[in-house]
Please model this.
Amino acid sequence: MAEAFLGVDVGTGSARAGLFDRDGRLLASAKRPIRLWREDPDVFEQSSDDIWQAICDSVREALAIAGLSREDVRGLGFDATCSLVVLDGGCQPLTVSASGDHTRNVIVWMDHRALEQTARINATGHPVLRYVGGKISPEMETPKLLWLKERLPQTYRQAGHFFDLADFLSFRATGSLARSVCTLTCKWTYLAHERRFDADYFRAIGLDDLAAEGFARIGTQVVDIATPLGEGLTEAAAAELGLVPGTPVGASLIDAHAGGVGTVGGATMTGSHADPTEELAFIMGTSSCTMTLTREPAFVDGVWGPYHGAMIPGFWLLEGGQSAYGAALDYLVQLHPAYPAAGKAAQAAGLAVLDYLERRAIEMAGSLEEAAFLGADLTVVPEFLGNRSPEADPHARGAICGLTLASSEESLVRLFVATLSALCYGTCQIVEANRAKGLKLGTIVASGGAARSALLRRLLADATGLSVALPETGEPVLLGSAMVGAVAGGAYRDLRDAAGKMCRAGDVLTPALGAVADFHAAKFEAYRLLQRCERETRAIMAPYSRR
Model:
């Protein structure tokens, strides 16, 4: 009988399922889109029922592609975005929407409706905020809970359960109300190193009722990542997924953290095992996340954490990120007048548009190494959803300097390269903040769809001055969740043991020196100048803002 482990990843726009063997090799994968409602620039909603159906369809298809039977799946792990799911006392969806539609019961991670509540929470200066980089983000759950209490009080009163999406999925699969230390610590202000919520914090910010209830609606049983939940898959969930009842399910992960699990601490190309504290896991998606592990707690302003045991047991985690990454790149290139023509040219060449623009950039520059210079005359600050790290400023906005009336494909390529470089400079600022606190980083291990771009990896290495490695697998996020399933199923002792067997490093790029390094130093200075200019102009116009 074959042996496989199933990872399920729910991102912003799709649900994916991946089957891996005991050595971490992908056997098959499948994906389905999930619906996203956007009623306002700051409001994003989804449906937990829609997400679950997409998962079920993906799992069944992946099994069929792999030619495996349901008995071959020995363990299952989930990861998902840090979105807020609301259920009533009967575990049915409860609306989070002004529309009143109960189908829409998920506040998506990038929803910024709770900006006012976030500001009030930060104004308390409560000591708990020290463990989220000094300031809480509107992308975390306590500001969203406070928004629900104040703006949708009926939903708040009727709610029986508030879940992080990853915990909801494990609940739907097993019936267990246990929450993962990953989700509660990183997004709900759970103090994992003390194994408790701070009731005083909840009273101070206006969520005293949750404290008075003993936190029953947000989780009283908190377990380590990959802990087997309940009695495995319930009969109902197994029937929906096409799996065997009782299949072990491990406590879940946030999606970026699954990417971290699937990349750091694995076998290097020489066969030795990397020191996870010297690697920065960098997960590139709609947003980006950086994951840095330390053996002792380190406090970095504007970088979330330190979180104990929130990714790899026994280590502290620092989590940075850029709220708009792939989303920022897509947004900017689609604004350019030459984008429709580039789309047709890409289709004719059998390429995605961004892949086509990368190929054109290398052609125009003459080499991968010289491509950065194409963006010399354009400086971009792509902070369209604020600055998550290291400034923790959700009000930050994007800016471009150097625009002309050019509308050619060549000018689109230059904008494309300048935006890629700018995303790398945002990552540079996170690396600098970590280094300022004494963290010694040697390698960035990149994952996510954008990590397959040779141009982006080259720019990232040259901009940060760090080596950039790819994991061997093309699906490290799915692998991270499958590793959770492997540990829950008893194949490995813990996640570090699983990493040593299932994770391996792939190609490594080292940073360029000389003229290329000098160019990035100058361009980074220009980036920071434009960033400061955006802050100053925003402050000047703040009294007149109608947002």
In short: The chain has a mean pLDDT of 95.
